[in-house]
Design brief:
346 residues, alpha/beta, Rossmann fold, Helicase, Ruva Protein, domain 3, Arc Repressor Mutant, subunit A, 3 domains, 9 strands, globular, binds adenosine-5'-diphosphate
């Protein structure tokens, strides 16, 4: 993705990845929130263990930073098996996939992140691997072409995607479990912040955790990142302890407002409101005005704005919700009519 934002659910570099690792829950019990998903998963894991079989292939779907990779680690840990990690874009050649699959042992978990970005050719190799635990490998070309069947050990494929709609139907159908991850409630995020503060050995009170939680856009990765920024601020500007005032001051300095929106979110909303009278407007027009790729906006900006009702997606395009107008200090259209002429009427 083209932009680095403090409120992005995506990972931004090696240093952060290293610290997020230490904060990653290792068991389902430690995993906070997503109660329905945890329940479904624990039943599937328990049943597989009872049958001494690998667990069914599982697909996790949801915005970045909500805990899909963490769940893959937890599944491997709970099943007592090894986790092998790869991603859609890094599997370029069929031999890349073949190498990984033939090295798997019985019960191993193969995690493919961004699985919607697998090429069609690689996907087709995956079908028999998932269904029959074998792979049909074509050697030679033309008249000499031969298909060799290579048997595989029984493994579990865990796929993660931010865009379930981009997955082909045959691939989607081969997953036994399809679990959607939704944005976290502020109370769950506050628990995540307190837990992470404990691991990082930072003192934080409940109001401090709440303050960070409400600015984390429903995303644990963002909560952990904001916590680290506030920790630094507290150490330099205060006595090292985090309370609501320290959290507020620190995040204000970072340009994160009380709902967790940053400059890009505000610019996005202003574009719809000021250039397109609140919408409807197509995503490509917004992208062109902001000089951002539509895909970036769709993945990193819109999901949370939709979730909090600031944005509506209609068949005619995007519209700013009344609360978005109010948040930016403007009156939504109905209220404006009663008030008389506005900036658009002159
Ligand atoms: P995704 O794969 O969906 O992008 P990750 O699994 O990498 O997200 O999660 C990002 C970070 O958020 C992890 O390092 C972990 O510390 C934290 N995290 C995610 N889900 C939870 C949770 N349910 N409880 C506690 N921490 C979580």
């Amino acid at each position: 993705m083209s932009i680095e934002r403090i409120v992005s659910g995506e990972s931004v570099g090696f240093e952060e990845e290293r610290e997020q690792l230490s904060l990653r829950p290792k068991t389902l019990k430690e995993y906070i929130g997503q109660s329905q998903l945890k329940e479904n998963l624990s039943i599937a894991l328990e049943a597989a263990k009872k049958r001494s079989e690998p667990v069914d292939h599982i697909l996790f779907h949801g915005p970045p930073g909500l805990g899909k990779t963490t769940l893959a680690h937890i599944i491997a840990n709970e099943m007592g098996s090894e986790l092998v990690t790869t991603s859609g874009p890094s599997l370029q050649q069929p031999t890349d996939l073949l190498g990984i699959l033939t090295n798997l042992s019985e019960g191993d978990i193969l995690f493919i992140d961004e699985i919607h970005r697998l090429s069609t050719v690689i996907e087709e190799y995956l079908y028999p691997a998932m269904e029959d635990f074998e792979i049909d490998f074509v050697v030679d070309k033309g008249a000499f072409a031969k298909t060799i069947k290579i048997p595989l050990k029984r493994f579990t494929l865990v796929g993660a995607t931010t865009r379930a709609g981009f997955l082909s139907a045959p691939l989607r159908d081969r997953f036994g479990l399809f679990q959607h991850l939704d944005f976290y409630e502020p109370a769950d995020l506050a628990t995540i912040v307190s837990r992470s503060a404990g691991i990082l050995k930072v003192e934080i009170d409940d109001q401090g955790s709440d303050e960070i939680a409400t600015r984390s856009r429903g995303t644990p990765r963002v909560a952990n990142r904001l916590l680290r920024r506030v920790r630094d601020y507290a150490q330099v500007k205060a006595d090292g302890r985090i309370n609501s005032k320290v959290a507020q001051q620190s995040l204000k300095m970072e340009g994160v407002d009380e709902l967790g929106l940053d400059d890009l979110d505000r610019k996005y909303l202003r574009t719809i409101i000021e250039f397109y009278r609140g919408g409807p407007v197509g995503i490509d027009a917004i992208g062109a005005t902001l000089n951002e790729e539509s895909e970036t906006l769709e993945d990193l900006v819109e999901p949370y704005l939709l979730k909090i009702g600031f944005l509506q997606r209609t068949s005619r395009g995007r519209c700013a919700g009344p609360r978005a107008w109010e948040h930016l200090g403007m009156s939504p259209p109905e209220a404006r009519e009663a008030e008389g002429p506005t900036l658009f009427d002159s």
